[in-house]
Amino acid sequence: MQPLVSSLEAIKAIYLGVDDLKVAASILFNAYVDDPLFTDIFQAEKEGYESRLRSAIREELNAFWVAEQPIVGLFDGERLLAVACLTAPDAAFGSGRYWHWRLRMLLTAGLFGTKQMLEKEEKVRALVPAVNFHMLSFIAVHPDYQHHGLGHTLLGAIDSVVEEDAKSEGVAVFVTIAKHKPFFNDDSYDVVGELSLSHVKGEVMFRRKAA
After folding, report:
1. Minimal CA–CA distance to 56: which of 133, 124, 125, 137?
2. Do the beta carbons of residue 70 and residue 139 sit within 8 Å?
3. What is the model's pTM?
4. CA–CA separation, 46 vs 39, rounded Å?
5. What pLDDT does 100 receive?
6. H/E element holding 107?
7. Residue 52: CA atoms inside 13 Å, Cβ hemisphere, count?
């Protein structure tokens, strides 16, 4: 039996605090452990895949936090139900990750995984028809609270973050699972390019901010 979720009107979308990062990492791990891009990047066929992925997600969240990038969560009371990580348009974050992030990622995820993570971001950015935009790096709903409309509520919160940033022209995301495309289509994301990374193909989608 699934845990109950309050009405969507009671759900709060707020920026995460540092004490929320551990739960956020767990939610993201469960969402991405079977994602074809991450199983390829972090070599799921080799021993220690789950450990490498957990470490990579933890380092990504820490890097987002240190760089003061938007990490948005949906809360039902004190329970964190969903999370999204964005890179702001003016961040020196992107592929030029801080040296300590690169070092820690190398130590935990390995050289191949670190290079692939950076390559993915550079290639996605190259396909987006905008100069200044947000990048949606992660989005996930806790597996126990799915199918309650929280994903669309989270997309709405992301839209608000983008709308409030005068510099941003919109938000981009790289989609590697076909069934996820309609989810983004429903929020006016359009396919702007196709991309192959190693053995994985996907589509870059972009939601342009309303004029």
Report:
1. 137
2. no
3. 0.86
4. 10
5. 47
6. helix 99-127
7. 21
